[in-house]
C-alpha cells in the first residue's frame, strides 16, 4: 500500500485559512455590518441603554466606540501573531498562564452563550409578531408572553440553529448582501417615518433634539455612564471582524482599515439616526410608547414599529427576525470553536475536541453550547421579570470582562516589542492598555452596581440584583468548573500543553 | 483505472473502503480515499474571526486519513486526497472528474430519525448528479474478497445500454460470470402476457449473444410488482454485485431514487452499482454498447 497524500486545487491537508476567493471593500463592509447585526442589536440594546442614560443615548453610542476600537486594535495584533481558534483563551493563556487563560475563554463562551439565548428570544418575539401581522390577529403576538409557549419556542429556535451549525451550513454571499441591505433600508425607513411623525405633530411624545444629547459628561452619574458604555460595547460587538481580514481581502494593506472605518461610519450613522428618531418620537418617559417604559425596554421595535411605520411595520419584524435568526446560527460557531480548542488543549474533557466525521464541524462542543444557551435562557426566563433586558446587561458585563482580559493579554504578550517602534508603542501597548483598563473599570463598576436589587429590570434573587447573579454568577461558576477540572486533569494547568510565553524582541 | 472512495471516519466510511477494495482487487484499480472538507464562506457571519479552526481540522483529517488508509490491504494501491467543496457529493464528483475516475464508492447507510435504515444524503445527491457509476456499500459491509459474480438488471428504460455496457466490460475485465436479469413485468406496468415479455427476452438474448465469445452469461427473468420485490425474489451469492441503471431506480418519480436504492440495500445487503442514464463506458466502441437504443419506455 502506498500512501501518497496529494493536494488538489491548493486545498490539501495542510491548507489553512479561508480560500474561497477574496473580498473587496464593499464585501468587507457587508461582512462587518452582518456581524454587528444592527436591527437585532438596536431592538435589544436601545431600551436598556435609554433606561441607564436617558436622552444622552447618542453621546454614549459615540463614546462606547472608543474602548471597542482600542481593544480591537490589540485583538488584531494577537490574531496576526497567534491565529488560533481559541482566540481569547489561547492568547490569555500564552500571556498570563493557564488560570487567567481559562477564565478568559470562559468569559468568551459565556458571552456568546448569553447572546445566543437573547438572540433566540428576540427572534421568537418577532416570529410571533410577524405571524400576527401577517394574519392580522394581535392575539398571536401576545403568545410570546405566555411563559411555556415562549420557552418552548425559544428552545426550538436554539435547537434549529444548533442543527444548522452542526451541519456546517453557512450563509452565502448573496444571502448576506440581501440581509444587510434589507436591515439598513428598514432601519432608515423607521427613522425617517419617526421624524415625519415628529414634523407632523403626530409623534407620541415629540421631544426636541438638543446638543446636550451628544454630551457624554451630561450623563447623571458615573454608574449610569459605566452601564451605558458596557451596553454600547455590545452594540459594536462584531465590528472588529473587518480589521482582522488581511489575506482575505483584495488589497491587504488598505482594505481592512478602510472597511473598518466605513463599517463604523455606516453603523454609527444608522445607530445615531435611529436613536435620535426614537427619542424624538417617543421621548424617554414611561408612557405607553415611551422609550423609558420598562415594558418597552426589552424590544423597542416590537412596540414602536407599529405606530411609527403603520402597515409597513411588518418589514421591521422581518428585518429583526432575519437578522437575529442569521446571527443566532453564525454565533453558534464561536463558542463551539472555543470549546473545541479548549478540549483540544486539554483545558476541558476530550469530548469537546471532537469533530464530526460527516460534517467536519465541532460536534460535541456545538451541542454543549446549545444546551448551555437553552439552560441559561430557561433559568433567566423563570427567575427574571424581564429576561431580555437582564441578559443584555449581563452580556455587556461579560464582554467587558473577556475583552478586557484580551486587551491586557496583548499588552503583556508583546511587552518585549512594545517600544521597538512608534507603531508598536501605539498598537501593541497604548491602545490595548487603555482599552483594557477602560473595559475592566466598566466591568467592576457595573458589577458592583448590579448587586443592587433595583438594578436593570429590578429583578432579584435573595436580595441580590439579577444582573449580578447572571454576570458574576456565571464567572464564578466558571471558576468552580476550572478548579474541578484542574483536579481531574491537571495537564493543562501544569502548562504541559500550552506554555506561557511572550513575543520575542523584534 | 481509478476509483474514488467517499471516505468518512465512521462506520459508513469503513463500508465504502471495504467495498472499494473488493471491487479493486484483480482489477488493478487504484483507490483515492477522498475526504471532503467544507468550504468557508467569508460571508458566513461568524464572529469572532478565527483562523485557527482549520489547523485543528487539518490535524484531525490527517489522523482520519491514516486510519482510512490503514483499512486498505497491502495489495491494493491507495492514496489520500482532501478536497474542499460545498458539499460531500460535490467534492466526490469533482474528485472523479479531475482524475477521470471510473467509479465512486460510498457507504450508503444512514440512520434516519426513527432509527429506520435509509440512504444517506451524500448517496442521494450522488445518485442524481454523478456522471460516473456510483457503488453503494450496504450497512456493515466488511467483505474485501474479490467480487464473485455480477448481476445486471436490464429492461427497456433509458440508459439500459449504458448499464449492459458497464456490466459486460467489467465482467470481462474481471473474468467474472455475468447474470442478466430481465425485469419486464415492471416495464409493462401491469401483468401483460404476450408482447412485452418476448420483446425483453429477445433483447437479453441479443445482449448475451454479443459477448458470448468472452464470458459466461446467464439470463433470468424476475417478476414482481416493484423492482425491489423482483430483485428480492432471486437467489444471490455472497460476493455478488448488482448493477442497475439510475432511471431504473427512479421509475416512479426521480425523487424516489434514493429510497428505492435504500429498500434494495436493506433487504439484499449486497453492494449495488448505479449507472447514470447518460453514462458511456470509456473505451468501448463495439459490443453491447453499440446496441440500438430504444425509446424511453
Q: Nutshell version of this structure?
A:
Chain A is mainly α. Chain A has helices at residues 25-36, 38-53, 57-63, 65-81, 88-96, 98-135, 138-141, 147-166, 173-200, 222-236, 255-282, 294-297, 300-309, 313-331, 333-344, 364-383, 387-413, 422-449, 466-488, and strands at residues 6-7, 460-461, 464-465.
Please explain how this structure is put together.
The complex is a heterodimer of chains A (506) and B (297). By secondary structure, chain A is mainly α. Helix content of chain A is 67%, strand content 1%. Chain A has a two-stranded antiparallel sheet. In chain B, strand 8 (149-154), helix 5 and strand 9 form a beta-alpha-beta unit. In chain B, helix 3 crosses helix 4. Chains A and B meet through strand 1, helix 1, helix 9, helix 14 and helix 15 of A and strand 2, helix 2, strand 3 and helix 3 of B.
Compute the separation of the termini of chain A in Å. Answer: 47 Å
Query: Radius of gyration of chain B, Cα only, in angstroms?
Result: 20 Å
Arrangement of strands in the largest sheet of chain B: 3-2-1-4-7-12-11-8-9-10
Overall helicity of chain A: 55-70%
Number of strands of chain A: 3
Q: What oligomeric state is this?
A: heterodimer
Query: Taking all residues together, what is the mean pLDDT of chain A?
Result: 81
Report the sheet-strand fraction of chain A: under 5%
List the helices and strands and how they pair.
The complex is a heterodimer of chains A (506) and B (297).
Chain A: E1 6-7, H1 25-36, H2 38-53, H3 57-63, H4 65-81, H5 88-96, H6 98-135, H7 138-141, H8 147-166, H9 173-200, H10 222-236, H11 255-282, H12 294-297, H13 300-309, H14 313-331, H15 333-344, H16 364-383, H17 387-413, H18 422-449, E2 460-461, E3 464-465, H19 466-488
Antiparallel strand pairs in A: 2-3
Chain B: E1 2-6, H1 11-24, E2 30-38, H2 53-70, E3 78-85, H3 88-99, E4 103-107, E5 109-111, E6 117-119, H4 121-129, E7 134-137, E8 149-154, H5 160-174, E9 178-182, H6 184-187, H7 195-210, E10 217-221, H8 227-232, E11 240-245, H9 246-249, H10 257-268, E12 272-275
Parallel strand pairs in B: 1-2, 1-4, 2-3, 4-7, 8-9, 8-11, 9-10, 11-12
Antiparallel strand pairs in B: 5-6, 7-12
Helix pairs in contact in B: 3-4
